[in-house]
């Protein structure tokens, strides 16, 4: 009898209950995994030791990514049997590769070359066996369809770029987790609009796994970091959402996002990519250093120097990215090049607003000093 029910069960018929179940399972597993992580981290001294570039002054556990990974594994293996099993199995395989690479990097040290090769392998598994790739640019620069191998190479580039972007912005409390929470919420919305229940379920599960982490990441006493384990898994998951969303939208002309998928996907991951490309340019072009060398030139470091707290910076960045996403949705029916230009201009302006404001206040203060010298 149970087998008959499962055979004819369609999650779309019970969508709200189905998504709530995925969220609740991930939330429960994540919340109940952290006590064990804390106990092991303290007992075995698996802590991040503050350095010159650190925004923290206390030794802190860095294994928060374990709870995020376990939550996604449980949801995938329990609810995945009624979804697109092949895609979920390969997605889980890719996440598992990055989980062990990230865990080794958090506990010991892993060379950038090995991490890079692991990211390529995880991405290739999905690209080759599910044929999930970016097939074109929806007419941006006149490119509608890419040749197969160029499509594969470009998709690999997107994976590596986004994975490392989320890894690089994980420099203050809540920023990587908060932006990942927003991105998963945005992708849950677009996948539900496209009736892709499989990816919507995983996106909602990721939200459930991140909420307990963010609660502890912002805590003063029992604080925890997601570490490379968490940032690589989250970056990989979001990069898969980006590729799947663009690929699916471009395959069907009747799709609501057929003419806007690349721009809409870019709006969701705009801040991580903006900060990564900006920091690479500063390091390579201005300081003549390796783009992977460490420094304090990230946007969040500059906001810290202006006196903003970790919570204020995270809230500001996440809200701006959400506003940018909503605006992009509003003009998704515009001509694709106009969408792209509006996104770049509006996004750059919004993320520069705080610095422009402080510069104007500084100029005002200097004029007052010049007019009324002491």
UniProtKB/TrEMBL annotation:
Main location: membrane
GO MF annotation, one: metal ion binding
Residues at which Mg(2+) binds: 167, 228
Membrane topology designation: Multi-pass membrane protein
One GO BP annotation of this record: cell wall macromolecule biosynthetic process
Compartments where located: Cell membrane
Annotated CDD domains: GT_WecA_like (cd06853)
PROSITE patterns: MRAY_2
Keyword Cell membrane: yes
Record keywords, A-Z: Cell membrane, Magnesium, Membrane, Metal-binding, Transferase, Transmembrane, Transmembrane helix
Record's protein name: Undecaprenyl/decaprenyl-phosphate alpha-N-acetylglucosaminyl 1-phosphate transferase
Signal peptide region: none
The organism of origin for this protein: Gelidibacter salicanalis
Cofactor: Mg(2+)
One Pfam family of this chain: Glycos_transf_4
Transmembrane segments: 15-42, 63-81, 87-104, 116-140, 146-167, 174-192, 198-218, 230-247, 259-281, 313-331, 337-360
GO CC field: plasma membrane
């Amino acid at each position: 009898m149970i087998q008959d029910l499962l055979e004819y069960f369609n999650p779309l018929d019970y969508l709200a209950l189905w998504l709530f179940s995925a969220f609740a399972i991930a939330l429960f597993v994540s919340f109940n995994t952290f006590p064990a992580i804390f106990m092991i981290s303290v007992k075995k001294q698996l802590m991040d030791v503050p350095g010159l570039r650190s925004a923290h002054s206390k030794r802190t556990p860095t294994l928060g990514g374990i709870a995020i990974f376990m939550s996604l594994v449980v949801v995938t293996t329990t609810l995945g049997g009624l979804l697109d099993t092949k895609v979920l199995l390969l997605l889980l395989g890719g996440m598992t590769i990055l989980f062990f690479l990230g865990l080794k990097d958090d506990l010991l040290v892993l060379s950038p070359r090995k991490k890079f090769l692991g990211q390529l392998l995880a991405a290739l598994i999905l690209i080759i066996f599910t044929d999930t790739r970016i097939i074109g640019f929806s007419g941006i620069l006149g490119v509608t369809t890419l040749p197969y191998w160029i499509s594969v190479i470009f998709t690999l580039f997107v994976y590596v770029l986004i994975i490392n972007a989320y890894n690089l912005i994980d420099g203050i409390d809540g920023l990587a987790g908060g932006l990942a929470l927003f991105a998963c919420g945005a992708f849950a919305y677009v996948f539900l609009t496209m009736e892709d229940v499989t990816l919507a379920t995983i996106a909602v599960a990721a939200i459930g796994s991140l909420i307990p982490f963010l609660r502890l990441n912002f805590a003063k006493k029992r604080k925890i970091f997601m570490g490379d384990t968490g940032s690589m898994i989250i970056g990989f998951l979001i990069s898969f959402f980006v590729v799947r969303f663009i690929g699916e939208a471009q395959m069907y002309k009747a799709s609501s996002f057929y003419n806007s998928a690349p721009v809409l996907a870019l709006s969701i991951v705009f801040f991580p990519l903006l900060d990564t490309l900006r920091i690479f340019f500063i390091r390579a072009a201005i300081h003549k250093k390796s783009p992977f060398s460490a420094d304090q030139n990230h946007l969040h470091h500059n906001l810290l120097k202006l006196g903003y707290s970790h919570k204020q910076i995270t809230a500001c960045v996440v809200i701006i990215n959400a506003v940018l996403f909503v605006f992009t949705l509003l003009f998704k029916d515009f001509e694709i090049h106009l969408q792209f230009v509006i996104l770049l201009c509006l996004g750059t302006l919004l993320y520069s607003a705080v610095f422009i404001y402080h510069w104007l206040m500084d100029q005002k203060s200097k004029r007052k000093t010049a007019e009324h010298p002491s």
